[in-house]
Amino acid sequence: MDSEEPPNVRVACSGDIDEVVRLMHDAAAWMSAKGTPAWDVARIDRTFAETFVLRSELLVARALLQKS
Fold it and tell me: Alpha-carbon dihedral of residues 45, 50, 63, 39, nearest 10 degrees?
């Protein structure tokens, strides 16, 4: 990665909610598979994620892939 490239991080917006829910489901499944279930997947829905988005408590970061 070019060290001159600024990080691509921003506060999540309402357009990110579906992706946030998907990522939270993936994270919950991963934690459960590792034997450390921390989140109740049944509670992770649009309303749950929207709470954090509306309070600006979630950040979205885009991975910058190095070109080969």
Answer: -40
Q: Give φ, ψ of 54 to 5 degrees.
A: -65, -25
Mean pLDDT, rounded, for 36-62: 92
The domain in which residue 47 lies consists of 15-61
Instruction: Name residues whose C-beta falls within 8 Å of residue 45's C-beta, 6 or more positions apart in sequence.
Output: 21
Number of domains in the chain: 1
- The pTM of the full predicted model, rounded to 2 decimals, is 0.73
| 17 closest CA partner among 50, 41, 43, 59 | 50
DSSP 8-state symbol, 55:
T
- The reported pLDDT for the residue numbered 63 is 75
What is the C-alpha to C-alpha distance for residues 56 and 16, in angstroms, rounded to an integer? Answer: 12
